[in-house]
Amino acid sequence: MLAKNYQLTSDIFLIFIMVKDGIPFVIIPIIIALIFAYFQIWIAVAIFVLLAAFMAFFFRDPHRTIPTEPNLIVSAADGKVTKIEDREDGKFVSVFLSPLDVHINRSPIAGKVKNVKLFKGKKAPATSNEASKTNERNALTIEGEKMTVVCTQIVGILARRIVCWSKVGESLERGQRFGLIKFGSRTDLLMPKNVDIKVKVGDRVVGGETIIGKLIE
Q1: How far apart are CA 137 and CA 117, in angstroms?
Q2: Active-site positions?
Q3: Whole-model pTM over 0.70
Q4: Which of 24, 56, 153, 164 has the most CB within a 10 Å radius?
Q5: Which of 160 and 215 is assigned the larger pLDDT?
């Protein structure tokens, strides 16, 4: 029983581990809440405490179990699959992240970062068909042993900033964290043509865990 309780406590703790980028978004509302508490303005205190709690929830960084089978491509983000296309340059899958989803981006494959390119643009709805061309976005090209995948972080209406921790020349493991998008976004994957897609439009996916596709050799 003690072991089970310890495991449950550990699981809850892991769920609410935050990415460091979110710390200022939690600390500032707490400081403001303390100021209002000094003046006993309790409604304002409650509002800013709730805001701090939401920020901690938004920037959560839960543990993920990464699949180890070879030739797999995992989702780069949590969210909902909104588009799947068979394009001239490869298989394309788009995942939309709501403000309630985990916003950490994870590498879809193991490989070396060959290119990181930031495109300035609009902050239109991320679900728009034109968002992948007109919105502000960051394209990360990852070259693996058997395939190359382009993962694009795209901002939406609420998104204010794309964060990418990886640099050209760095190696990433499958499922490794490489960045995040603050407050609502979309993540696109462009994969080789010989990839068998394992998801469908409307599916909910989990970053680093859900298998998006498998390379057919």
Answers
A1: 8
A2: 185
A3: yes
A4: 153
A5: 215
